[in-house]
Specification:
Elements: H1 3-16, H2 19-30, H3 35-47, E1 50-54, H4 61-71, E2 72-73, E3 76-80, H5 87-91, E4 92-97, E5 102-107, E6 114-118, H6 125-137, E7 139-142, E8 145-148, E9 154-159, H7 172-175, E10 178-183, H8 189-199, E11 211-212, H9 213-224, H10 230-244, E12 258-260, H11 264-280, H12 288-299, E13 304-305, H13 307-311, H14 316-326
Parallel strand pairs: 1-9, 1-10, 2-11, 3-6, 6-9
Antiparallel strand pairs: 4-5, 7-8, 12-13
Helix pairs in contact: 2-4, 3-11, 9-11, 10-11, 11-12, 12-14
Length: 330
């Protein structure tokens, strides 16, 4: 890749990402701080990948997703997951019309562009399976009919890691369909003071729709053209390989800590997420820093730990960080 090509790619990325400034402005009217979290949601939008936000109650996970949906001129639906939820509550059902003798398809809230699955781990397995088809196949089957979902279809889910009453652990196959799993942390003292001032004011901030679905779809095409060098691809393969066979790659101590490594889906998602990360910074090419920045969010829910790691209180995030520190950067 020569100097001229680099400048051209950067120019395209800068031009196509300009609309993100307006989107950030609207989001920042409501959300204080949490810049990394906002970036992850934007990356999910641009990389066409679903995102799972995990954090204790009260950290504005739901508020962020709703704010993004308000700033995008698209169909939005919110699903409050509960233990008594049924698949039909998500996908819809067929209703019999006695006048005509026909069945009419009533589409559920999953037929939208942006879907907020709030407290997604509160629903049982049969509901998760209905959501799984929509997330992976981008289609919904009702009775014998298959309905294709719109080009812009994104599930943004939240879950609470500390409450186990009335919750169901998400199946590994379901979790793997989320491109990113982002951990939401507490705000700083200064940020929390600003939150108090803003959210206790007489006039709460209002968000305008400043981005269209076409803006996002056009940006997605530009993201797909962000350059990824072969050295970067090999770096990703090295990282993923260590999660599967740490002993063969010089990290034998991790053999007893990893039950299952990341699948090829992780490699694909890591490249796509890194492209989107470069794009939002106005760059037309991926650097190793983009990979290192996105790897924890892509891999933390795909590296399955053993009982021994749990006994030692070693999390998948700890393991991913050790791998990132060990593998040579190109």
């Amino acid at each position: 890749m020569n100097q001229t090509t680099v400048r051209e790619m950067n120019a395209i990325a800068e031009k196509e990402s300009l609309f993100l400034q307006d989107l950030r402005t609207e989001i920042n009217k409501v959300i204080v701080g949490q810049e990394t979290l906002v970036d992850r949601v934007l990356i999910a939008l641009l990389a066409d990948g679903h995102i799972l936000l995990e954090g204790v109650p009260g950290l504005a996970k739901t508020l962020l997703v709703k704010t993004v949906a308000e700033a995008v001129d698209a169909d939005f639906s919110r699903l409050q997951f509960t233990p008594d939820l049924l698949p039909a509550d998500l996908i819809g059902t067929q209703i019999y019309n006695p006048k005509t003798g026909d069945f009419i398809t009533h589409q559920g809230p999953l037929f939208a562009n942006l879907v907020l699955a709030d407290e997604v781990n509160r629903a049982p397995g049969k509901v998760q399976s209905a959501l799984l088809e929509a997330m992976q196949e981008r289609q919904i089957t009702i009775a014998n009919h298959t309905h294709i979902l719109p080009d812009l279809f994104l599930v943004m889910a939240t879950q609470n890691p500390i409450e186990q009453e009335g919750t169901y652990p998400l199946p590994e196959a379901q979790v793997d369909r989320f491109m990113l799993k982002t951990i939401v942390d507490y705000p700083t003292r200064l940020e929390e003071r600003r939150i108090i001032d803003r959210m206790t004011d007489l006039d709460l901030p209002k968000v305008r729709s400043v981005v269209t679905t076409q803006d996002i779809l056009r940006a997605r095409k530009a993201v797909r053209h962000v350059y990824v060098d072969d050295k970067i691809k090999n770096y990703v393969l090295d990282l993923i390989s260590v999660t599967r066979h740490p002993g063969n790659n010089g990290l034998s101590p991790l053999n007893s800590l990893i039950e299952f490594g990341a699948s090829p889906r992780a490699s694909i998602y890591l490249i796509n997420a890194a492209r989107a990360h470069a794009f939002i910074q106005g760059r037309g090419f991926v650097t190793p820093e983009d990979i290192k920045e996105m790897a924890p969010d892509v891999l933390r829910h795909r590296v399955i730990t053993t009982y021994e790691s749990e006994a030692q209180e070693i999390t998948s995030a700890d393991i991913v960080q050790r791998i990132l520190n060990y593998v040579d950067v190109p």
